[in-house]
Design a protein that fits this description.
The chain is α+β, with helices and mostly antiparallel strands. Helices cover 28% and strands 24% of the residues. A hairpin with a 5-residue loop joins β13 and β14.
């Protein structure tokens, strides 16, 4: 079992290994790669949110000088494509193929239906203008409640809700999730207070600064290399190979530096198009989305409508909870309806509950992951209901949560019994925090909310190579989107017993290292870190073997301590300790280069909990909300690099506050997105927010060698409810619809 102990390297704050390259501009991102003979790829997108494609004529486009290739959905392999999208992106590969390029119908404004490759931007634009498309325009379905009506317009006439028995008729409901325990009717009968409300969260974008970009080069044998911005190049390779029905051995994917992803770069959009264009053109093809394309045609987070009913006794004990949540999937199935169901009650020990969630098709872009997919929306609803109950009961909102908090041995609402977890420790830290004990500023409101994410394991691989001078190279396949290279080096230094400065980390391409699942789900430091640790242990075993050979003793008589092989008790030979550098320098005489490797499917991911506190003030004349203070408290298990952990907590808070206060997709009645750019899609800037204070709680995960839980997802979960509860208390009026933008609040106050 991992214990909270003093480490030599873990918990320190070294300078990030990619920092110099990034601040000097040397770091290569997806759009920075160029090749000789490279041409430009661009996409023709639908001007309609819902229409049948009657015909596409590319004759004139192909005749334009400088145009090397034009493709449509007809160029892609037909027949069924089996398999589901791995990682955080939901849905099937077959649907993803139709999302990459439309076939018989366009299903949202901006849906790709043709792509061109030409020698210049101008030639490519001329080719797009020359493509003739004939549409049969259909009515779009944009409202989630209208979409679930049995008589609604159908986004997909072949969609039948996945149930044990196939329904008699198609609908816009793709999937239904249910979790039930106990007797909720009996629980509500015991309740002294019942809260029942409807809550709305909008569709929002992750807001990453770097747009999607890739470069594909396919040779005469059909073998290709793709350089791209991705959270998981192995998954991108697999998705692209499936969509194009290629052998994955014929595709090599190289992950470049990534300018933000947050779950939005876990599925392919450009890569299959670039590969096919390159193959047809016989030239490398580079494709980069405009900001408008990113908003219109990539995956946002699902919008939701949630109905929550919760009953409590007068002393604050929850007796029953009943929830229903409809998630917008966009044009294809794959909303995070089950994670939503699994997270809504996760922090609490509930005897009686029910939750039903729906995965609903609408004529909007297919949704993608956004940090903890499904949890912010689901937990927003329940955390707001609990805060209202605390007000009615005149009870401290943290005390109410402490009374109902899950702990070690509690059976989670989603099934398993919790091992040791840190939710109560987070609540106690919040209760004792100076910001919570300070008076609420005059005219302001203070909000509290809890957050949760499971964290996941999945597959990871790593190799550790020892150079002749004892320096170490760690090679793994998890793109670094949150400081993972520094974390890998710290864990390697701790395991090997050598200085951090002697270790380098590299993210290998799909032909240079073993398979790794996507960087997402807060899995990388946990799972890939476990692989790195095991690979280092493999190195230690080999070093002990080399030392035994040198000393002429049995291997079991050699121990490893502080980066050196030392003789164990009972060794009578007069020998001196051998450092890693000394062993590496003599490796040619003792068996060759020293290296270690590990591949695993990591088990035992530790659940992560958070508590957020915020004070806000509302101008009742304009509806403007000022965030006066924000405090994020989270159980990290063990903070490998505390600065990165704090950065994750602060970044999640900023994104969650943006979701709560301003961010939303605004569509007109025809399904056209009206705010497809950062000028009109309002994400927080530095002047909008106070300094976000953080407190790291460390309750080590007993199933990781260094106690890691993972920290990337949980920080975005609680801010939505914390901000809503603060605004509700400031106004003395319950606000249930996000975002709490000035116009929306003025409407609520009228």
């Amino acid at each position: 079992m991992a214990e909270a102990i003093d480490y030599k390297h873990i918990g320190s704050r070294p300078v990030r290994p990619d920092g110099v390259d990034k601040v000097t501009g040397r770091a290569e991102f997806g759009g920075d790669v160029s090749l000789p003979g490279m041409i430009i790829g661009k996409i023709l997108r639908s001007p309609h949110a819902h229409a049948r494609i009657k015909s596409i004529d590319i004759t004139d486009a192909l005749a334009i000088p400088g145009v090397h290739a034009v493709i449509t959905g007809e160029d892609f392999p037909g027949g069924g494509i089996s398999g589901e999208i791995d990682g955080e992106g939901g849905g099937s590969i077959s649907d993803q193929a139709k999302n990459v390029i439309a076939r018989d119908k366009v299903l949202y404004h901006g849906h790709a239906l043709a792509a061109v490759a030409a020698i210049s931007d101008r030639a490519a634009d001329r080719a797009l203008d020359a493509i003739k498309v004939e549409y049969e325009v259909l009515s779009p379905v944009l409202d989630i409640l209208e979409a679930i009506d049995p008589d609604s317009v159908l986004v997909n006439e072949n969609n039948y809700t996945k149930l044990p028995e196939k329904p008699d008729r198609p609908s816009n409901i793709a999937n239904v999730g249910n979790l039930v325990r106990g007797d909720i009717q009996e629980g509500f009968e015991r309740a002294d207070v019942v809260i029942e409300r409807e809550y709305v969260c909008p569709m929002t974008h992750q807001g990453y600064i770097e747009p999607h970009s890739c470069l594909a080069s396919v040779d005469e044998e059909g073998k290709g290399t793709v350089w791209c911005s991705t959270q998981g190049h192995f998954e991108f390779r697999n998705q692209t190979a499936s969509i194009l029905k290629k052998n994955i051995a014929d595709l090599k994917f190289v992950a470049k530096e990534i300018g933000g992803g947050f779950g939005g770069k876990t599925v392919v959009y450009l890569e299959p198009l670039a590969v096919m264009l390159s193959e047809k053109a016989g030239r490398p093809v580079k494709m980069t989305m405009t900001r408008e394309e990113v908003f219109r045609a990539t995956g946002p987070a699902a919008g939701t409508v949630a109905r929550v009913k919760v009953g409590l006794t007068n002393d604050g004990k929850i007796t029953a909870a009943d929830s229903w949540i409809a998630f917008e999937a966009g044009a294809f199935a794959g909303a995070p309806y089950m994670p939503g169901a699994m997270t809504i009650y996760a922090p609490y020990d509930l005897e009686n509950f029910k939750v039903e969630t729906l995965d609903v098709l609408v004529n909007k872009p297919k949704v993608a992951a956004y940090r903890a997919p499904g949890a912010p929306q689901a937990m927003h609803a329940f955390e707001c209901a609990l805060d209202e109950a605390a007000q009615i009961l005149e009870m401290d909102p943290i005390d109410l949560r402490l009374l109902n908090a899950a702990e070690e041995g509690t059976q989670a609402a989603y099934g398993p019994k919790y091992p040791r977890i840190g939710f109560k420790e987070c609540l106690i830290a919040a209760k004792n925090h100076p910001n919570y004990n300070a008076p609420v500023p005059e005219g302001a409101g203070r909000g509290v909310a809890a957050g949760f994410w499971f964290n996941i394991g999945n597959q990871s691989s790593a190799e550790v190579h020892v150079n002749e001078n004892g320096t170490v190279m760690v090679i793994e396949g998890s793109p670094d989107i949150g400081g993972s290279r520094a974390s890998m080096c710290l864990m390697a230094a701790e395991t090997l017993g050598i200085e951090y400065s002697l270790i380098r980390a590299q993210v290998g391409d799909t032909e240079s290292t073993g398979f790794c699942n996507t960087t997402g789900g807060s899995r990388t430091t946990f799972a890939t870190g476990m692989a790195v640790t095991q690979a280092c242990e493999d190195v230690i075993r080999e070093c002990k073997k080399r030392a035994a050979l040198t000393w002429g003793v049995d291997e079991d008589m050699v121990e490893w301590e502080d980066g050196r092989a030392i003789p164990g008790p009972g060794v009578n030979a007069d020998v001196e300790a051998l450092s890693l550098a000394e062993l590496a320098g003599k490796a040619g005489k003792t068996g060759g280069p020293i290296m270690g490797s590990a591949s695993l499917n990591a088990q035992g991911a530790g659940a992560s909990f958070s508590v957020n506190l915020t004070d806000v003030k509302v101008d009742v004349e304009t509806g403007k909300v000022d965030v006066l203070s924000f405090t994020a408290i989270q159980d990290a298990g063990t903070a490998i690099h505390p600065s990165y952990v704090e950065g994750q907590m602060q970044g999640g808070a900023a994104q969650g506050l943006g979701w709560a206060l301003n961010e939303e997709y605004v569509f007109d009645e025809k399904g056209v997105l009206q705010n497809a750019g950062f000028l009109d899609y309002r994400i927080p800037v530095a002047s909008d927010l106070p300094m976000i204070e953080t407190e790291i709680v460390e309750v080590p995960n007993p199933r990781h060698p260094y106690g890691v839980r993972g920290v990337g997802e949980t920080p975005i979960v609680a801010p939505l409810a914390a901000a809503t509860n603060a605004v509700s208390r400031a106004l003395n009026k319950r606000i249930c619809k996000l975002p709490m933008s000035p116009s929306n609040l003025i409407e609520e106050l009228d």
